[in-house]
């Protein structure tokens, strides 16, 4: 939600690009710690109290953002929101996987719900932007989150895994390919988060129409909604490492495009390319990692991705005084490096011994 509201906060308060990077870093640091807690403290994520408590924290932190203009308080609130978001995401994903164990193709729509949320909140901010204030935008975000929380909190509890699955012998990790994947996913975290934080602000700057940035964010969400289902359907015919490399290349070009081309057309292409890949890359990476290593591999990959999210705003902070477009160019370069690191995985997929 911070991404589409940031331009309004810049125009209506004294928030600078550097302040925005600090707030974003706090949010992603919270997400990293929440993800680590979810991965390495299983009783925490299995507790029925965690989901409603985290949903309440998430709504409360959104509603508290417009009550202050103090940067340290914003940083603290976004840190708490990030930690709560990570635990909510992991908890709901586990519930969905348990409930859809016999219909795995539907799980892609659960991940796609992130895109639907982006589209709805982006549209709300777009409407508020015409005559409203940044405070109203945060309150609307809190109200939408509260309504959504009522449905999420009623999700069924996770069922126990089948006995055969619980007693399956551990796999021996493929250390070489897993290392390439870990580096690639870390770089994806860096590149993705820079675009997710500053894409709207970049498209809203330099005399562009006021609706362009937030409108593009709505397109990001609409493209993300079906993306996991479509990419996973392709994975039935095409090796996942190849799809992962292609998705990273598409994302790299989409993110870098606004740094060299302006206008509505470039913004739409960038939004579709970015939205159509970022959740799919997450799903493809985690599925590939599970096949290469052990269940704990998912937690390790998620931690690396979260670390990349923390590092991303810090990496581009020195160039933000020159505008947001240089940051998108750096992000595109990082995502290109992520694609190059994922490419060696294709050799393993092509090896008959690992087919």
From TrEMBL:
<feature type="transmembrane region" description="Helical">
    <location>
        <begin position="267"/>
        <end position="286"/>
    </location>
</feature>
<feature type="transmembrane region" description="Helical">
    <location>
        <begin position="215"/>
        <end position="234"/>
    </location>
</feature>
<keyword id="KW-0472">Membrane</keyword>
<feature type="transmembrane region" description="Helical">
    <location>
        <begin position="241"/>
        <end position="261"/>
    </location>
</feature>
<dbReference type="GO" id="GO:0005886">
    <property type="term" value="C:plasma membrane"/>
</dbReference>
<protein>
    <submittedName>
        <fullName>YbfB/YjiJ family MFS transporter</fullName>
    </submittedName>
</protein>
<keyword id="KW-0812">Transmembrane</keyword>
<keyword id="KW-1133">Transmembrane helix</keyword>
<feature type="transmembrane region" description="Helical">
    <location>
        <begin position="106"/>
        <end position="130"/>
    </location>
</feature>
<feature type="transmembrane region" description="Helical">
    <location>
        <begin position="326"/>
        <end position="346"/>
    </location>
</feature>
<feature type="transmembrane region" description="Helical">
    <location>
        <begin position="73"/>
        <end position="94"/>
    </location>
</feature>
<dbReference type="InterPro" id="IPR010645">
    <property type="entry name" value="MFS_4"/>
</dbReference>
<feature type="transmembrane region" description="Helical">
    <location>
        <begin position="20"/>
        <end position="42"/>
    </location>
</feature>
<feature type="transmembrane region" description="Helical">
    <location>
        <begin position="136"/>
        <end position="157"/>
    </location>
</feature>
<dbReference type="Pfam" id="PF06779">
    <property type="entry name" value="MFS_4"/>
</dbReference>
<feature type="transmembrane region" description="Helical">
    <location>
        <begin position="178"/>
        <end position="203"/>
    </location>
</feature>
<dbReference type="InterPro" id="IPR036259">
    <property type="entry name" value="MFS_trans_sf"/>
</dbReference>
<feature type="transmembrane region" description="Helical">
    <location>
        <begin position="49"/>
        <end position="67"/>
    </location>
</feature>
<feature type="transmembrane region" description="Helical">
    <location>
        <begin position="298"/>
        <end position="320"/>
    </location>
</feature>
């Amino acid at each position: 939600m911070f991404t589409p509201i940031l331009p309004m906060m810049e125009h209506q308060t004294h928030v600078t690009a550097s302040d925005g990077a600090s707030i974003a870093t706090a949010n992603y640091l919270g997400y990293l710690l929440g993800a680590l807690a979810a991965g390495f403290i299983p009783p925490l994520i299995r507790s029925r109290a965690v989901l409603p408590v985290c949903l309440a924290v998430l709504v409360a932190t959104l509603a508290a953002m417009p009550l202050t203009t103090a940067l340290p308080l914003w940083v603290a609130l976004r840190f708490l929101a990030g930690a709560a978001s990570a635990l909510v995401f992991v908890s709901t994903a586990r519930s969905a996987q348990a409930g859809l164990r016999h219909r795995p193709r539907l799980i892609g729509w659960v991940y796609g719900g992130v895109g639907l949320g982006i589209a709805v909140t982006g549209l709300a901010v777009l409407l508020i932007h015409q005559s409203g204030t940044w405070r109203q935008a945060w309150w609307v975000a809190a109200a939408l989150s509260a309504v959504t929380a009522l449905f999420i909190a009623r999700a069924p509890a996770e069922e126990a895994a089948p006995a055969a699955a619980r007693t399956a012998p551990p796999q021996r990790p493929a250390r070489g390919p897993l290392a390439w994947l870990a580096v690639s996913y870390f770089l994806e975290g860096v590149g993705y988060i820079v675009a997710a934080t500053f894409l709207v602000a970049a498209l809203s700057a330099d005399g562009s129409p006021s609706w362009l940035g937030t409108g593009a964010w709505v397109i990001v969400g609409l493209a993300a909604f079906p993306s996991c289902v479509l990419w996973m359907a392709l994975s039935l015919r095409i090796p996942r490492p190849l799809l992962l490399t292609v998705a990273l290349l598409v994302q790299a070009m989409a993110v870098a495009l606004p740094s060299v081309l302006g206008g509505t057309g470039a913004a739409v292409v960038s939004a579709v390319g970015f939205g159509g890949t970022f959740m799919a890359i997450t799903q493809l990476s985690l599925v590939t990692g599970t096949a290469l290593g052990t269940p704990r591999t998912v937690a390790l990959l998620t931690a690396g991705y979260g670390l990349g999210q923390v590092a991303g705003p810090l990496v581009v902070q020195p160039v933000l005084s020159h505008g947001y477009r240089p940051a998108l160019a750096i992000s595109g370069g990082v995502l290109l490096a992520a694609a190059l690191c994922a490419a060696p995985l294709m050799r393993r997929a092509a090896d008959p011994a690992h087919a």
